[in-house]
Write the structure tokens for this entry.
Amino acid sequence: MISDGMTKIGDMSQTSIIEKMSRLEHQIKYKQNVEHAEKVIARLKECADETAHVDETMQEIRIEMDNIKEDTTGPQALYEKLKKIEINFI
């Protein structure tokens, strides 16, 4: 199912981003003499904001997709249902 695959891809991407940001944040906090630490922190904040925006957008798309009603009465829908019926002839 496409939605399951997309969810997994989104989760993997988000996890990867969070791990990278955590590592960078750790380096800034605990390594000495990080040049331009304030600038790096500001850029990390921008990344976090962008990631949050992407996450919100994907959630909105998911809600929109969940709200789409399938036409179960039209000719194409009926044809698809009939294709799934197995008929065993003796």
